[in-house]
Specification:
about 90 residues; mainly alpha; Histone Acetyltransferase, Chain A; secreted; signal
């Protein structure tokens, strides 16, 4: 999978937590779980902020896709790029 594809999937996954009051730690935790965590841990994180069955099904599908398609290098590159963006943005 290309890096652009990885970033697109990650951005889609981040949409599940937009209602969080403390967005930066939630983004950081969710990004880390999405890319590096277990499938179950990621779904539990999404469930903290949204219990809609359609959202959970989509999160499950996205996480499965990332786990199957991205290489460890793709995941690390994406994580490095996004963590830098989260901390340098005006959100934090």
């Amino acid at each position: 999978m290309t890096r652009a594809g990885a970033l697109l999937l990650l951005c889609a996954a981040l949409l599940f937590i937009v209602e969080c009051d403390d967005i930066c730690p939630a983004l950081r935790d969710t990004v880390d779980l999405f890319l590096s965590g277990s499938h179950e841990a990621y779904i539990e994180q999404v469930e903290k902020y949204n219990q809609n069955s359609d959202v959970l099904e989509t999160a499950d599908t996205l996480k499965s896709c990332v786990d199957e398609k991205l290489t460890p290098e793709d995941k690390q590159d994406t994580l490095s790029a996004l963590v830098g963006q989260i901390y340098s943005s005006s959100l934090c």
